[in-house]
Amino acid sequence: MKVVVNWGGGKETCLAYQKAVAQNHEVAYLLSFVYKKPYIYHNFPVMEAQAKAMGVPQLKVKIKNDKDVLSALTRLKKEKGIEGIVTGDIVDAGCIQMHQAYYQEMCQRIGLSLIMPIENPTKNTYDVLKEEVDVGIKAVMTCINLDYIGEEWSGRVLDGDSIKNLKTLADKHGVDVAGEDGKSYHTMVTDAPFFKSRIEITKSKNKVMKEVSMSGKATWLLMDIKKVALRPKK
After folding, report:
1. CB 3.0–4.6 Å: which of 15, 55, 82, 94 could bond 180 by disulfide?
2. How crowded is residue 33: how many other Cβ atoms within 10 Å of its Cβ?
3. Residues 124, 127: Cα–Cα separation, whole Å
4. Which of 129, 11, 29 shows the shortest CA–CA distance to 86?
5. pTM of this prediction?
6. Mean pLDDT of the chain
């Protein structure tokens, strides 16, 4: 099936891509919606480098509302022959019910398939986190909620040791260890088995961002990445 991946550049997005390819889907584009500035959760310079490292074109679509999302997906089906959209939501975790209902309704209206390949059979997102590390996805903590996670985590790579420490923090504060609830942290991936080059962050600066949303107030420490470079694999 010819698909697009709803692309944010984080660890679940990358795992979903890897699984979709393993399921023999043809990933035609990485689809990134642009809806606010600054987009604190994910970083566009990194996403652009990821697309180059993967050899898959990225489509950046500015949106203001649901109608814009529907219009973009409709155009992709009509003009590019897209048959489905892949998302990095973890089944039975976090905000998936809301996200699934949101995309399912749109897909049904225009005849697209919704593909959520991170199945989470144990219903434990820590197992998904371990899978991401085990398959070689290198995720860097680039946006952390200071209410739950200390500033020393900014820029830290998630590996076998760090995710154990992360689980202790998540259990203490009652948040999802994979960050699937959107409350504690976000990541950007700098290397993966399907990258032809690794990504090096060459210029960044930490800044504190206050956010007020439907889920409450948050104080985010953002690793504001300005420049990146593609480097040969080590």
Report:
1. 94
2. 17
3. 6
4. 29
5. 0.95
6. 93
